[in-house]
Design brief:
The protein has 3 domains: 7-148, Nucleic acid-binding proteins (OB fold (Dihydrolipoamide Acetyltransferase, E2P), Beta Barrel), CATH 2.40.50; 157-267, Nucleic acid-binding proteins (OB fold (Dihydrolipoamide Acetyltransferase, E2P)); 273-458, OB fold (Dihydrolipoamide Acetyltransferase, E2P) (Beta Barrel), CATH 2.40.50.140. It contains 10 helices and 25 strands. The N and C termini lie far apart (68 Å). The chain is an alpha+beta fold and 462 residues long.
Length: 462
């Protein structure tokens, strides 16, 4: 069957009135790992071609993104050619994203292979002459485009301005320096990968599988944050993307500088504490300089008014510093507070007491409590503000609930950790009062069309 009328460029896809039997052949710009949604495992792949690119200096910031429902692990590099067919629909999400929905198999062809060897199915693929020619043209375009264009000028997050520190979600360009296999008793083997930036700062991350080579340059996508030892703490979005040696960023790796690294180290200190003068064994974390210097104190009455107006988009990027005292903390039992969640689908949320908690090992563990607070602006009425505090399983910058070991807690041993949790909760009620208020930095977020406030930094927990 001839496919002459089926093959379309990305620009033609946008203009096309009919998508029936259309085929897309494009270049990989960015991709996620497989993550769990209510519809099943999903991978997102951002694509470009020679008619449609995504660059920061363009007036239009549109980009294409393929959504593939699959549990198959893709092997791909940035710059590889991707072949997509039998997609169900294309929808424009928000204003800047065209989403290509498909549950069919996707072929990925390496840039430096002469034959049509598919890395996703590990075999040569037979395609029509038109498709083969299109793939060859895109391979040539990929070589030219990525050898002249910085990834930093394309789809890139972070370390270009101080706002990225607040988001704690950024990309890194690093060189693989050393790979160490680690065997842990009663745990699966993993690899400790030591990486360097262009200024020889050292980082490391842990991977279950490793096919990287010492000396190669990689892009670490969506780092959640760096801990005090420069371990790359991953989120659901994080993965390590390989680059070809002809990439501008590989050839010019020594020129890639993180202008903000010094700023982060000076202002985002994980180890700064204030000792309690009444008890030499107790210490409280200080509000980080970056928060203390940049946010004026907001009243709880102000936050409540924002909730009533429910105009989330006017405050979505704001952070507020408040001074308050605690009147209640819920839930009081770890069976309800410890959960496994999906960051991509809010419907997937299993507490420790749920049977799914044991089986859904691919989901992240969190400890989530709601803290009810008051301040002088609402002292004389019945109103309170509900703050959300979340401790993630690998969060090392603040161990809000020290001693409640998220990675070890199970329903069978929960009582052991419940005692520690009770001590922490009881102490908070004693240590805060109308006359002894504490500083908290909160950030608004939207949940079920309602504005809530999440704690991102606090003085009241060690």
């Amino acid at each position: 069957m001839k496919q002459t009328n089926q093959l379309k460029t990305l620009t033609e896809i946008i203009k096309s009135k009919s998508l029936k039997q259309s085929i897309i052949i494009a270049l990989v710009l960015d991709f996620t790992n497989n993550y769990l949604t209510s519809q099943g495992p999903l991978v997102r792949i951002k694509i470009i071609d020679d008619t449609f690119t995504f660059e920061k200096n363009q007036s239009s910031k549109m980009y294409f993104q393929v959504h593939n429902l699959t549990d198959k692990k893709f092997s791909m590099n940035i710059g590889d050619v991707i072949y997509v067919k039998e997609f169900q629909s294309i929808k424009q999400n928000k204003l800047e994203v065209y989403e290509v929905e498909t549950s069919s198999h996707i072929h990925v062809f390496e840039q430096n292979k002469s034959k049509l060897w598919c890395t996703s199915c590990q075999k040569n693929i037979l395609l029509c002459e038109q498709s083969e020619k299109r793939i060859q043209n895109l391979r040539e375009y990929s070589l030219k485009y990525f050898s002249q264009t910085k990834l930093k000028d394309l789809y890139w997050k972070g370390f270009t301005n101080s706002d990225q520190i607040f988001k704690q979600n950024f990309d890194l360009l690093l060189k693989v320096h050393q790979i160490e296999p680690v065997n842990v008793e009663d745990a699966s083997k993993y690899y400790k990968i030591i990486l360097l930036d262009s200024d020889m700062n050292q980082y490391y991350l842990k991977e279950q599988n490793c096919d990287f080579k010492v000396g190669e340059i990689v892009k670490v996508r969506s780092v959640n944050y760096l801990d005090k030892e420069n371990q790359i703490v991953k989120s659901t979005y994080t993965n390590v993307q390989r680059l070809y040696t002809f990439f501008y960023d590989v050839v010019n790796f020594d020129k890639f500088k993180y202008e903000i690294i010094k700023y982060v180290k000076e202002n985002y200190d994980f180890e700064e504490y204030n000792h309690d003068l009444q008890d030499e064994n107790r210490k409280f974390s200080l509000i980080k300089k970056i928060h203390k210097d940049n946010f004026k104190i907001a009243s709880l009455e102000f936050l409540l008014n924002k909730q009533r107006c429910n105009d989330y988009y006017s405050i979505k990027h704001m952070k507020y510093r408040i001074q308050c005292y605690i009147i209640d903390i819920q839930p009081s039992f770890l069976l309800d507070a410890v959960r496994r969640i999906s960051y991509f689908d809010k419907k997937i949320n299993y507490p420790l007491k749920d049977q799914n908690f044991k089986t859904m090992n691919q989901l992240k563990r969190i400890l989530e409590v709601q803290i009810l607070v008051k301040d002088t602006s609402i002292d004389l009425n019945k109103e309170v503000v509900n703050l959300i505090l979340i401790q993630e399983e690998l969060q090392n910058d603040h161990d809000y609930f020290r001693g409640v070991e998220l990675l070890k807690i199970e329903e069978e041993n929960v009582q052991k950790y419940q005692k520690v949790f009770d001590i922490i909760i009881n102490r908070l009620f004693i240590e805060t009062s109308v006359s002894k208020q504490v500083d908290i930095i909160v950030q608004p977020f939207l949940f079920q069309q309602k504005i809530l406030y999440k704690i991102i930094d606090t003085q009241f927990l060690p």
